[in-house]
Amino acid sequence: AAVVGLLYPCIDSHLGEPHKFKREWASVMRCIAVFVGINHASAKLDFANNVQLSLTLAALSLGLWWTFDRSRSGLGLGITVAFVATLITQFLVYNGVYQYTSPDFLYIRSWLPCIFFSGGVTVGNIGRQLAM
């Protein structure tokens, strides 16, 4: 999480596009609250199937990015974080370090990349605010 939080301001300065959207701690705290809500929804909401849950969480995750970030670098890093974290989780589950009771996407749950994406955007907002 610390590496991801540090990557966001570094990538912004490297691309020459400083992030200017909603730069205050109140916005960061609201982003954290929405992330906690998305995470809680993934565990507590009951859907007819996992495809509906995954699509709903994907829409909520993109909504989180749109509401609190809206930068191309934030979208790219969020997708990268989700992809890399999902690969690492796949590797850990495949090697028996972790286990899911009912995996539906290779060895993990299909909604997990959405949670990683939301977490990446949230930690990135914290990193950007701390970099100020």
Largest sheet: none
User: Secondary-structure element order, as H and E?
Assistant: HHHHH
Radius of gyration: 15 Å
Shape: globular
Span from first to last CA? 18 Å
- Derived from helix and strand composition plus strand pairing, the structural class reads mainly alpha
Mean pLDDT over the full residue set: 86
Helix content: over 70%
| Total of domains | 1
How would you describe the overall organization of this protein?
- The chain is mostly helical.
- The protein has one domain.
- The chain is built from five helices and no strands.
- Helix 2 packs antiparallel against helix 3 and helix 3 runs parallel beside helix 5.
- The longest helix has 23 residues.
- The radius of gyration is 15 Å and the shape is globular.
- It starts with a helix and ends with a helix.
- The model has no long low-confidence stretch (mean pLDDT 86).
- It is a multi-pass membrane protein.
- It is found in: Endoplasmic reticulum membrane.
- One of its GO terms (molecular function) is lipid binding.
- Mediates feedback control of cholesterol synthesis.
- InterPro entries: INSIG_fam.
